[in-house]
């Protein structure tokens, strides 16, 4: 420790007692050298004489006695960064002027280039005769304090400038600080709130919330992002997100709480809008599917009305047709959503009003915040916006549904008792739904027209085939009698040919009649147990007589396939498939038949080496009246496979085809085997 012979000169003891004097000196020495504050003294020439360890550490160097003037610092600066001459330093001035220079902020640069901010206290030292003998200076390192101050300043600036309310309160719930953000959200000024209970901004029905919050705070818990409501000075409730943390004193004891409150009005509005949009999209998606899939006018209109009523938030929605019906009414209510149909029907029709004309004739969208007081419609007779007896309506919106050819098919109407419910956004959404609905309605209407025509065709086929059946049966009977009684050989030959043609005709008419019965759901089966394999062999035997062009080869034959089915209908299936195999393989001379059984069912396959069927037509050949592309000289009605499939499926079986164009086809069907008791 550096020690100058002069250092006793700074001790200004007045004690008369020698030993007490010594005691004082040693205490003072200890106090000086061990002080955590940098202290040093200079003689009256300004040379550093005594200094303590704290000063050496602060300067970053040890001054040279008799050389360093005024200070042990390497370099010193003004607070603004300008270098300070030692001769101008407060230490030099204190010596020169013989007065104290306190609280001077200077910056010291140390030999290692590090910087220290210090608070300087320089004072003159006088001897017993009041003669100045030097100076004594204390340097307080404020480098870190400065950072803390800066931090404090930044934090204060944040608290002052944030939009969030930052409030502190004590454990009694009394407000202790209130920032401008709090004033902005709640309307109260700092002076109006500090010292007041926080309950002032808590709505009456939520006051217990504060008790719970305080309880949790006392336990040291932090409350994060609590969504709640608070009351503003004007009495309005505002949604906020609250984060509350306990505030502790330097001993760690909880003395209050700091609250950060964020106004989430806008956030909630956006969340609500997103939710609503998502819901609308879901509704529109589901609606789009229905519109595409359903070809049913009634169903489409009801779905459109329901969905659009939901999207607009209307109390009721309705679809009115713009067509003249048998009674001459030209605006007919078709579907309704959100209210009883009676509330409209009792109004009486037609409902032509000037208001409706805009939509139904002029193709305009009409949207009114309050139709009854709207200057555009409210003053127009006879209804003044709303017809007499109409359910109360304020908000009104009507969107025309326009066909692709530009006619107004109808209109979607929406109403609500409250004012201002419908927006331009609703107008846009409903507008696009309406144009989709128009297409769907046109398709559905066309489809319904086709259905009517198709029903008429079925009716005709059923009637015609029934009417044809009776004369064919009697012609057949007369021909059979004639064949027996005819003596002339040529005559018998002709009768035989006529009979064959009548049989062909009979089978065509029978197929027609059967198909009508299937469509009308009138086909009936006489079920019985029989052996399918025996039936197959019988059918093949009979078939061989009439078909000499092809050899029918039965392969992999197995016996005893008992089924529970209509034998006559299964026989019809076998004849159909065998006839087709022969008919559609004119250049071949073989047909292969095989049977297998597995997992409770029997499968019969009939394979030919004929013209085959293209991949795209494979699925169509089982539909009614469908005939695949092929030579035009092969006759048929396109009913055989339709009947075959219907018969097999109604016996809980299935039928499939494998085919290669130009190579041949393999039709195979399965039937469940009869259960053996
Ligand atoms: P039809 O024989 O009276 O036309 P089907 O319903 O029996 O009616 O057959 C429908 C269509 O399927 C036929 O027109 C023909 O194009 C095709 N088809 C049926 N069987 C075969 C087959 N074995 N080979 C090739 N095409 C076939």
According to DSSP, the number of beta strands is: 24
Mean pLDDT: 86
Largest sheet: 7 strands, antiparallel
Strand content: 15-25%
Order of strands across the main sheet: 2-1-7-6-5-3-4
Flag low-confidence runs. 1-14
Shape: elongated
Bound molecules: adenosine-5'-diphosphate
Structure description:
- The protein is an alpha+beta fold.
- It is 39% helix and 24% strand.
- The chain contains 16 helices and 24 strands.
- The chain has helices at 18-34, 53-59, 90-97, 143-161, 180-186, 190-193, 207-218, 265-293, 297-312, 342-345, 354-360, 424-485, 489-519, 532-546, 567-583, 640-650; strands spanning 38-43, 48-51, 75-77, 83-84, 101-109, 115-126, 132-141, 165-170, 175-178, 223-231, 237-248, 254-263, 316-321, 332-337, 366-368, 395-402, 408-416, 528-531, 551-555, 562-565, 590-598, 601-608, 654-660, 664-672.
- The strands form five sheets. A seven-stranded antiparallel beta sheet has the order 2-1-7-6-5-3-4, with helices on both faces.
- β10 and β11 (237-248) form a beta hairpin.
- α14 (532-546) crosses α15.
- It starts with 17 loop residues before the first helix and ends in a 5-residue tail after the last strand.
- The model is unreliable at 1-14 (pLDDT under 50).
- Bound molecules: adenosine-5'-diphosphate.
- The site of adenosine-5'-diphosphate (ADP) has 21 residues, from α15 and α16.
Descriptive terms for the model:
677 residues; alpha+beta; five-stranded antiparallel sheet; 24 strands; 24% strand; binds adenosine-5'-diphosphate
């Amino acid at each position: 420790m550096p020690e100058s012979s002069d250092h006793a000169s700074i001790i200004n003891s007045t004690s008369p007692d020698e030993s007490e004097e010594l005691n004082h000196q040693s205490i003072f020495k200890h106090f000086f050298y061990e002080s955590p504050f940098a202290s040093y003294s200079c003689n009256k020439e300004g040379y550093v004489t005594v200094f303590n360890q704290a000063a050496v550490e602060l300067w970053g160097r040890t001054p040279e006695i008799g050389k360093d003037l005024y200070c042990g610092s390497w370099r010193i600066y003004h607070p603004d960064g300008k270098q300070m001459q030692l001769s101008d330093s407060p230490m030099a001035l204190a010596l020169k002027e013989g007065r104290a220079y306190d609280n001077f902020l200077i910056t010291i640069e140390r030999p290692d280039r590090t910087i220290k901010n210090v608070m300087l206290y320089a004072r003159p030292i006088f001897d017993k005769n009041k003669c100045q003998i030097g100076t004594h200076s204390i340097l307080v390192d404020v480098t870190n304090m400065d950072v803390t101050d800066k931090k404090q300043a930044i934090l204060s600036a944040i608290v002052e400038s944030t939009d969030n309310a930052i409030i502190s309160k004590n454990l009694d719930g009394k407000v202790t600080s209130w920032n401008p953000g709090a004033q902005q959200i709640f309307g109260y000024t700092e002076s109006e709130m500090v010292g007041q209970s926080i309950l002032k901004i808590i709505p009456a029905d939520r006051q217990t919330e504060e008790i719970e919050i305080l309880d949790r705070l006392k336990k040291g818990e932090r409350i994060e992002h609590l969504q709640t409501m608070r009351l503003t000075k004007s009495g309005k409730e505002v949604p906020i997100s609250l984060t509350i943390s306990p505030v502790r004193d330097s001993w760690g004891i909880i003395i209050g709480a700091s609250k950060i409150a964020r106004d989430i009005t806008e956030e909630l509005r956006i969340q609500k809008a997103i939710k609503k949009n998502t819901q609308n999209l879901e509704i529109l998606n589901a609606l789009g599917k229905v519109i595409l899939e359903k070809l049913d006018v009634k169903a489409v209109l009801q779905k459109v009305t329901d969905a659009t009523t939901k999207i607009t938030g209307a109390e009721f929605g309705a679809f009115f047709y713009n067509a003249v019906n048998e009674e001459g009414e030209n605006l007919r209510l078709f579907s309704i959503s959100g209210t009883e149909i009676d509330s409209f029907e009792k109004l009486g029709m037609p409902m032509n009003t000037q208001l409706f004309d805009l939509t139904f004739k002029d193709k305009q969208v009409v949207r009114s915040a309050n139709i009854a007081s709207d200057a555009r419609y409210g003053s127009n007779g006879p209804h003044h916006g709303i017809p007499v007896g109409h359910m109360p309506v304020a908000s009104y919106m009507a969107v025309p549904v326009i066909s692709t050819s530009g006619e107004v098919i109808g209109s979607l109407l929406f109403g609500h008792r409250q004012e201002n419910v419908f927006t331009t956004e609703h107008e846009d959404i409903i507008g696009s739904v309406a144009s989709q609905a128009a297409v769907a309605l046109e398709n559905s209407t066309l489809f319904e027209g086709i259905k009517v025509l198709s029903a008429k065709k079925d009716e005709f086929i059923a009637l015609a085939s029934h009417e044809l059946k009776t004369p064919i049966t009697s012609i057949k009977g007369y021909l059979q009698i004639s064949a027996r009684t005819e003596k002339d050989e040529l005559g018998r030959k002709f009768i035989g040919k006529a009979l064959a043609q009548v049989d062909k005709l009979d089978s065509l008419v029978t197929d027609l009649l059967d198909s009508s019965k299937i469509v009308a759901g009138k086909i009936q089966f006489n079920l019985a147990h029989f052996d399918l394999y025996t039936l197959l062999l019988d059918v093949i035997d009979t078939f061989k007589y009439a078909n000499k062009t092809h050899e029918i080869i039965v392969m992999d034959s197995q016996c005893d396939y008992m089924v529970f089915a209509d034998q006559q209908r299964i026989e019809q299936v076998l004849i159909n498939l065998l006839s087709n195999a022969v008919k559609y393989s004119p250049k071949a001379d073989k047909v292969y038949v095989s049977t297998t059984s597995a997992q409770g069912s029997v499968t019969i396959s009939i394979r030919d080496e004929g013209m085959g069927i293209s991949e795209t037509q494979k699925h169509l050949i089982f539909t009614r009246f469908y005939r695949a592309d092929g030579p035009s000289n092969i006759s048929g009605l396109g009913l055989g496979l339709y009947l075959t499939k219907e018969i097999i499926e109604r016996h809980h079986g299935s039928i499939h085809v494998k085919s290669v164009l130009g190579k041949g086809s393999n039709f195979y069907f399965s039937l469940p085997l009869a259960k053996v008791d």
